[in-house]
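User: Continuing from earlier, I have the next pair ready.

Assistant: Great, send them over.

User: Here they are, in order.

Assistant: Folding the first of the pair now:
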Amino acid sequence: MLREADTALYAAKDRGVDGWSRSATNCTKRAEKRMQIESDLRAALREQQLFVEYQPQVRLRDGRVVGVEALVRWKHPRFGIIPPSDFIPIAEDCGLIIGIGRLVLQKSCRQLADWTRLTPADHSP
């Protein structure tokens, strides 16, 4: 009964502030999937399955790359690439987002240091 109540709670939270839900098979399946993602995400942090991809930010006036956006990605050992939309909300809800943010920051800083070493400085606007 507690598991069913927990399932209904997650379903109601997904529907928003005034959301409600009753226990049902669909809710149970969604809750089980959510719990599996949370468990797998904890392992992903430990086992370094998360990685960062960089999207360039380009100035339209001259096409010059003026920055990059760091984007976290998850390569699940069984399911392949998991979209951020499937795991970021869960990470936020269960507090794993702090560890993910720290990982992205560390990897991004290392990458910036590598790029800085390999690229001559150009400080023109």
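And the other member of the pair:
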Amino acid sequence: MGLQARASAMSGALKALESRALKLEGESVVQQDLLRTAKANEENYLLYHRKREEARIADALDQRKIINAAVAEAPMVPLVPESLPTTVKVLLAVWLPH
């Protein structure tokens, strides 16, 4: 009799613990979803903040009429100086291998 009562009590406690475990598992999924959403929101905020700062800098440069330019190709030293006469340049072009 005592063992049956104890088994019944244990069974009730086991069911309560199983239901609590299921509830915690569901809450864990919700928590992970909230963490992912918070991280995505933080990344979006940082992106928008960076873009707003870039726009502010570009506006300041425009107001001061400063051009924001980038070099597309690295400068190259010419093989033949510009000050040479054309005939000398042609002779050098023929004589120097390509």
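Worth noting for the second one:
The chain has a mean pLDDT of 86. Residues 19 and 25 are 10 Å apart (CA to CA).
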